[in-house]
């Protein structure tokens, strides 16, 4: 009986951590997001804004998927990059010349490159989280030291 209860707890915990397709979701803290962004070409002065965007879009989850867009499109990864314009479901392609699946791992080099490309093309307003949670707001809670 004890093993059954323990097994149920382990199974429930595993289900809670499982993301889409059974992939374990990795959820980074603000300081971990900041560290990853620095490693992937973001400037220190821009970290509060980008940490705000990443936390607002995916809560720091590198394997987040949003299938609830009204236009039927899907958002992927830390920055919730959309498959309508930026990534392709069928191999590399679209605006960032990237596979959507490649946005669902813990290596955010390609996610970062694509996010900077989107920002250069459309500005930060391309992210709903930026407009709702970051733009014109006090970002002191996102001004964290990388850990």
- Distinct helical segment count: 5
Across the major sheet, the strand order is 1-2-3
Write down the CATH topology. Lysozyme
How much helical structure, as a percent, in the residues? 40-55%
Q: Which H/E pattern describes the elements?
A: HHHEEEHH
The assigned structural class equals mainly alpha
The CATH class, by name, is Mainly Alpha
> If you average the pLDDT, what whole number results?
86
- Main sheet: strands, sense, barrel: 3 strands, antiparallel
Number of strands: 3
Judging by the overall fold, what is the CATH architecture? Orthogonal Bundle
Radius of gyration: 17 Å
Q: How much of the residues is beta strand, in percent?
A: under 5%
Tally of structural domains: 1
Shape type: globular
Beginning-to-end CA distance, first to last residue? 42 Å
Which parts are unreliable, with pLDDT below 50 for 5 consecutive residues or more?
A: 1-23
Protein name: lysozyme
EC number: 3.2.1.17
Keywords: Antimicrobial, Bacteriolytic enzyme, Disulfide bond, Glycosidase, Hydrolase, Signal
Family: Belongs to the glycosyl hydrolase 22 family.
Structure write-up:
There is one protein chain. This protein is mainly alpha-helical and 147 residues long. The chain has a single domain, classed as Orthogonal Bundle (Lysozyme). It is built from five helices and three strands; from the N terminus they run αααβββαα. The longest helix has 16 residues.
Tell me briefly what this model is.
By secondary structure, the chain is mainly alpha-helical. Helix content is 40%, strand content 4%.
